[in-house]
Task: structure prediction
Amino acid sequence: MIEVDLQAIAHALTRFAESIAWFVIAAGLFQNAFHIWQLVLAARALRRDRGGPQGRLLWRRYAETAPPIALLVPAYGEELTIVESVRSLLSLQYPAFEVVVVNDGSKDRTLDALLEAFELQPVDRDYELIAPCARIRGLYATARQPKLLVVDKENGGKADALNAALNLSRAPIVCSMDADSLLEPDALLRAVRPFVEDPERMVAVGGSVRIANGCEIRFGRVTRIGVPRNFLAVLQTIEYLRAFLMARLAWSELQSLLIISGAFGLFRREPVLAVGGYSLGTVGEDMELVVKLHKHFRREKKPYRVVFLPEPVCWTECPEDLGVLGRQRARWHRGALETFERHRDVLFNPRYGRVGVLGFGYILIVDVLGPFIELAGYVLVPAFYLLGVLNAAYLWAFLAVSFAFGVVLSVGALALEESELRRFPDVKSLVVLMLAGIVENFGYRQINNFWRVRGTWQYLTKQHSWGTMTRRGFTKAA
Result:
């Protein structure tokens, strides 16, 4: 009788282990199959749009019809990079623009660095407080740089600073940026094309964000593209290629793009103010704004477009320290969960079309459930195999789903970069990145999943801290 009970328990345990393994493998296959589909969509889009106007032709075609743009630059603790970033922005190749830099109560010399470098003086400017923001302490400008306005305000966070810039800007198109970012000289002309070609429907345009670590930077411009020397930065280079060149381009093709990076995105100012500007009390303000715009136009039943373009490029400095990177990734994940909670009525709601079914369905599977499914796979599948209740076929299937597909996607994104954009200068750089695309699946990806779980915990426990983000500065990074 005891032997029968033990056999029954062993059989039940085996069935349970097989069910867990099948669930984890099926979820992984679904996610990776979707990513492969995204890779195909991105490749098709890049081939379709190949051969667009370049250089002087770009200027001749769009300069006369391009609408004015206000660049919104929130800055907190950016003493090391702010002057070079602003100089880079002021030298952009665009016919009519202004740069609105918001010092968000920095505790370092961010404001002093700007005042000294550009010889700014206090000024008055009429504005209306439409989007909520903390008290503005002063405005600074100079006749020598008529395109530059510096705003000094009490600390309120990034979304609060962007709202202050929105209130003070005067252009019909606004460009949200990070203070530690550098735009390529023709980035605005490239990014504004959809607004010129489809002015009635175009609401938002996102551009590519790439890693500046390892590049040579002079006078606020990337003069030579290189591969970072820091191993973490190399891995992030592959991540950014995969995220922007593959995923966001594919979401744009599917008309379900839910995020435009806060480092570089163009928006029509009027609808942004109509939805209340950037929402406060969230670290995912960039994603949350795009979702609010989708909901606004869907409810109003007005035709609109939110697109991503790979050619306009913004360069940013990425973390080279594991602790700083972990805080950044946990914060990103927390922001996605906050947006999902605030707008959970969109999920699978026919009223919101593809945005509700594809976009929010993906967030549910990948961001809400994904970290725990992946964690269960890493822990339970090998454990069941070692205990003898799961045969080797399940283990090998799990490893194939976990690692082989990851390698294919990373190498595929790099192949897209080389075949269509060709920004890396030599074969050595490509070899290093290809090896990084393989290595990242064995350790780094698993650490990323741990950071996502930590971000979920922070979200559940209502932690709202931004976390310390140290900067080395562009000059040193070069």
User: Anything to note?
Assistant: Residues 58 and 189 are 7 Å apart (CA to CA). Residues 2-48 form the longest helix (47 residues). The longest strand covers residues 305-316. The mean pLDDT is 88.
